[in-house]
Amino acid sequence: MSNRRPNKRKSSPNKRKKKNHSNEVDQNYSKTEDIRLNKFIAHAGLCSRREADTYIAEGKVEVNGKVVTEMGYKVQRKDTVVVDGQRLTLEPFVYLLLNKPKNTITTTDDDRGRNTVLDEIENATGYRVYPVGRLDRNTTGLLILTNDGDLAHRLMHPSYKVKKTYEVTTKRTLTDDELAAFAKGVELDDGKAKGFNIMPFGDVKNTFLISVFEGRNRLIRRMVEFHGTEVTKLKRTEYAGLDLKDVSNGRWRFLKQKEINDLRKLVKLDALDFKKN
Q1: Which of 43, 67, 88 is the endpoint of a domain?
Q2: pLDDT, tens digit, 9 for 90 and up, residues 21-42
Q3: Domain carrying residue 182
Q4: With CB atoms 3.0 to 4.6 Å apart as the test, which of 25, 38, 76, 135 could cross-link to 139 if both were Cys?
Q5: pLDDT tens, 121-157?
Q6: What is the pTM of this model?
Q7: Which residues form the catalytic set?
Q8: SS in 3 state form for the chain?
């Protein structure tokens, strides 16, 4: 059963009370173990290793008060690592599944004061987590949040072809030929887009299900616009083998240990050993 949705209250992640959960995995580095700097940054949840390399090359990384631009530089857990003014720590990995509501921004903060996905999980873990990919403001449904930078990067990378399924409601009913065109591929301004497992959604008017294996910006909406109509409602119902069972709109839950390792296996990462916690 999903967790209760917390009250909307802004607070700094560093000031939140740390909570212990069986689905957290400590990063088992000793204080004296050497860790590549880009790996440290990724495992602190800030970004992928490749993106960490960019931060390093641009001179935005400090170790113990000194700017480091050397690729392959190694640090230890006890070192002070600061990226672009933000101090990082190797916090335990945590993984959440949110049923994102409408009118919610898929960012960590918003300078216009709009509701973000982090507001929806406020105080959930006590650790910084980041959304895996994006859903636009009016798209609802399944969104993963984690501080496991390697997993997040691979789930979003097109080479891993992560399956996403959407429930799509359109302004008018698409014909059988129009739905079949998605399976063959429709030409968009940034290349052909193809859908899979396309079928009507029960008896719901103007609604169908479609799966895709890529994450281009506004992809489903643009595929529908190809046929001269528009999406009026869009919900992601499945992502990488996960679904929204028992998670109602605006609620969240922690991923189960098997779900976490299934995700890591999907993108060719080693399984985590929860027994060490």
Answers
A1: 88
A2: 556 776 667 778 899 999 899 8
A3: 163-239
A4: 135
A5: 876 777 778 899 999 999 999 999 998 888 998 999 9
A6: 0.79
A7: 136
A8: CCECCCCCCCCCHHHCCCCCCCCCECCCCCCCCCEEHHHHHHHCCCCCHHHHHHHHHCCCEEECCEECCCCCCEECCCCCEEECCEEECCCCECEEEEEECCCCECCCCCCCCCCEHHHHCCCCCCCCCEECCCCCCCEEEEEEEECCHHHHHHHHCHHHCCCEEEEEEECCCCCHHHHHHHHHCEEECCEEECCEEEEECCCCCCEEEEEECCCCCCHHHHHHHCCCCCEEEEEEEEECCEECCCCCCCCEEECCHHHHHHHHHHCCCCCCCHHHC
